[in-house]
Amino acid sequence: MVSLIGLGPVVAQEMRPEQIYQHLLPSVVTLQVEDQAGARYVGTGFLVLTNTVAVTAWHVVADARKVTARFADNEFVEVLGVVDKDKKHDLALLRLAPSDRPQVTLNTSNAPVGSRAYVIGAPKGYEFSVADGLISQMRKVDGINQYQVSCPISGGNSGGPLVNGCGEVIGVTSWSKTDAQNVNFAIPSSCLASLDPSLPPKPWSDTGKSSSFGISVNDGAKFASPAACGVPVNGLPDFKQALKGAAGEEVTVILVRDGHTETFTFMAPAPSDQLLGEE
Fold first, then answer.
1. Exactly one of 27, 154, 158, 225 is catalytic; which is it?
2. Is 59 a catalytic residue?
3. Mean pLDDT of successive 10-residue segments in the chain (279 residues)?
4. Number of other CB atoms surrounding residue 276 within 10 Å
5. What is residue 221's predicted lDDT score, i.e. its pLDDT?
6. What are phi and psi of 27, to 5 degrees?
7. Choosing from 35, 63, 86, 90, which is the catalytic residue?
8. Is there a catalytic annotation at residue 158?
9. Taking a C-beta distance cutoff of 8 angstroms, is the pair 243, 120 a contact?
């Protein structure tokens, strides 16, 4: 296995926010995703190790049938497939067509609680946006250590870099708590060590066959594809059961009919509430 992690800690100087943004921007991509149902949405990724490997959140591409990467200078690059994935930690490596781009620097040390952090992504489709906040805490959620951050995060940010004050990537943006203000989470960069960038990419036709991921907390940073949110729906009984499992959480459903797509977002009812089709 080829490690994504360097041999030692990187000593770097603090940078101004505008310097951090300009430093990271050439390595960040907006991922334009079309899922198996034909719905389209965006996520974020960033280059690591080489100019043909990008990191993103697994749920961004879990049900994809086609993905294109767009750089800030409006260059589009084909995403050939998934190189490796870690469903439990919601991480994926993607193979991109070669481009003359720099890669980010990873810092795998735990960032101090209270330190400044930044995110770059496409919140609600507003590409290459930067926002700042603090490392609020290191939390164990579903048995996984995650950064809790106060950086504002919306749908479209997922898979983007969480950056420290030295311009180093310390995590991968993953999800948000919908019933709270700026309670957002990112997977630490150290978790990337389990992924192998030397593997050949799997075509999208194979990737979408298994689309669930390990982090079960639903949130506003995940996208409008049911499969991308870990809820494969094969009929009304499955849909009703999925709603029961998501009780009290915000759920987004895509209806595809006659080639047209409609999106509905609502709070899943508690088990005691009446569900669709129940008497």
1. 158
2. yes
3. 49 89 98 93 95 96 96 96 96 95 96 98 96 97 95 95 98 90 95 95 74 43 32 49 64 58 63 39
4. 9
5. 35
6. -100, -5
7. 90
8. yes
9. no
SS3 track for 184-247: EEEEEHHHHHHCCCCCCCECHHHHCCCCCCCCCCCCCCCCCCCHHHCCCCCCHHHHHHHHHHCC
| Contact call for residues 185 and 81 (beta carbons, < 8 A) | no
Query: Can you read off the two tokens belonging to residue 218?
Result: 């639903």
Which tokens sit at 201? Answer: 């990419």
Query: Which two tokens mark 147?
Result: 């950064």
Question: Residue 84 and residue 43: Cα distance in Å, rounded?
Answer: 18
Please give the model's pTM, rounded to 2 decimal places: 0.75
Is residue 136 flagged as an active site residue?
no
Single out the catalytic residue among 59, 89, 174, 219. 59
| Cβ(186)–Cβ(147) below 8 Å | yes
